[in-house]
Amino acid sequence: MALVQQIQLQGDSGARGSARRIAGSPVLRVVGRRLLSAIPVLIGVTFLTFAVMSTLPNDTAQAILGLQATPGQVAALNHTLGLDQPFWLQYWHWLVKVLHGNLGTTLEGGSVNHELAVHLPATLELLAYALVVSLLLAIIMAVLAARKPNGIMDRISLAISMLGLSTAPYAFAFLLIVVFAVKLPWFPVISTSLGSTPVSWFKALTLPAAAIGFGLFAIYTRLLRADIVEQMQREDYIVTAKAKGLAPWRVLIKHALRNSLFTLITVIGLNLGGLVGAVAIIETVFQVPGIGNDLLTGIGNHDLPLIEGIVLVFALVTVLGNLLADLAYAVLDPRIRYGSSTS
Amino acid sequence: MAVPLPETLATPAPPSLPSLVSSRHLRAQRLGRTLRFWVPAGFLILMLGMCFLWPLVYKLPSPTNGNIIYNNEAPFSPGHWLGTNQLGVDQFSQIVYGGQVAFEVSAATTAIGMVIGCTIGVVAGYAGGWVDAVLSRVLDVLIAFPALVLALVIAEGLGPSEIHVIIALSVFAIPAFGRVSRGATIVVRGLPFMTAARLAGTRGWRIIARHVLPNIMPGIVTFSLLGIGIVIILEGALDFLGYGIPLPKASWGSMIAQGQQIMTAQPEYVLIPSLFLLVTVVSLNMLGDALRERWGVR
After folding, report:
1. Which CATH number characterizes residue B189's domain?
2. Is residue B26 part of a domain?
3. CB of A131 within 8 A of CB of A219?
4. Is residue B150 one of the residues assigned to a domain?
5. d(Cα B255, Cα A112) in Å, to the nearest integer?
6. In a domain, B17, yes or no
7. Structural domain boundaries, residue B124
8. Backbone angles phi, psi at A147, to 5 degrees
9. Using the beta-carbon criterion (under 8 Å), do B149 and A314 form an inter-chain contact?
10. Residue numbers of chain B with a pLDDT score lower than 70
11. A 186-225 residues inside an 8 A Cβ radius of B
12. What pLDDT digit, counting tens, does each position of A87-122 carry?
């Protein structure tokens, strides 16, 4: 939505909406460059998974057929599954299929597309819930802390974020379960189904989201607080704003926070890839029916097509997250928006 | 190697004014700085001593075999001051031996990540051009890669063992160090003394060894303290999922996983290893912060 507005703005401000101007729009250029540079990353990530999975000792066919299978049967199944081919050939076949929109079949015989379609929403909802809540809380906390460096709020925020940074999510998840699901029966212990009402959704996903979000909250708070404090102490425009007689909270929020958001946005984009691990573990702890849970099952079964599909989705999420980060830059920074940036 | 000369004639930022604070205030500040360094450092020394020296001095009960008659003893019971688990295995010796594993794995992983990652990062940052472009793309792929997935795949494929955990987690550490050292190298490369060194005819590798490395080291060391903490948590995660240190060998992650089964009745089985994990990682992070403050690293 914002993108469309940017492009329209671009057209109005410059050469009256000429097509060339839109094609040369800096925002579109950013999107284009990002999408192009995503292709080698996506290929690299999936190829690496293939290479690692194929070079490691594996006995997929044996696992499917059971211990009674003769070597001949194992070899035959390996041949039908295409596992006797060199891995780059297997990768090529997989890639061709993916470009046709088919992610292959899992070892259990189901289609990977179907598996992802059923289980992806829960994971995305969980991720979005954790991200949005931790981000909002982190912004509030960081602004309160940065208002008075070394003040009481600053110390509290430092202590909380230090805890969040050092807590193992799986251990924290158990603490949450003991306190908020067992001692106080507010939330279910496991979240196998998200239900259909917003209330049941909220109940099922709150504890998992809290387990994932605490660490994120800590990272964001530390980063944002440090950046705002630095802006407030160093930057000339803060002095100008103060000299104009703006209220202190206005300087803090409209000037310092707005500029500090850039660093934060970059880090959010970069962190998305690393989040996958936390999501997978937390989904297993709470039995959330998401693809993180599938991923661990897939790794246990040595289910290459399933793992590849999930890795591809997570890599895509990371790439799109970084793209959104770049677009948010464009929205926040008029220099990028109007293409007069010299850097 | 065409390295663009930096803008040496840019106006320097005006020096910040000296602050008008009393000597008492200054002394309090200095004390705070000392405490911020030595409290976490002391905790870490304590933990290391507990894990590596204690079992040499005092004979601990076996961390793998227990007497089932003395199972489920509460903390502070005689002979087992942290109690015993469902099988009668002493909790404290499990913590001690699990801690050894955690420290060994994290130290080894961080060392591997630092050496390989920094080599890649410094070369990429210093050389620039196509070398940088290629190496950065490789790092990009590794960073975009969900590293825990790769770690799990490797650990699962190679089978559980301490060495395999180290290999698996190095995948995580190498790109992180690579990225940090590349960024730091690029900053250092733009400084005036680098121009001077180049103009004096110093060779590339000598510049790296004498000028680049000493200047990026503070950043790398503080980052590696943070990294050790993350690796300890990840090692626990692999154990927790059953892909880490093979049972019955003790590890903090598998203690948490085992405690989970009777968590509602006796939460201490989860809480005790979690607490040791937390204290260790908090100390590492605080030490990292203190060093960062001391060395003025951003």
Report:
1. 1.10.3720.10
2. no
3. no
4. yes
5. 35
6. no
7. 36-53+89-295
8. -60, -40
9. yes
10. 1-20, 65-82, 86-88, 144, 298
11. none
12. 788 888 888 888 887 777 777 777 888 888 888 888
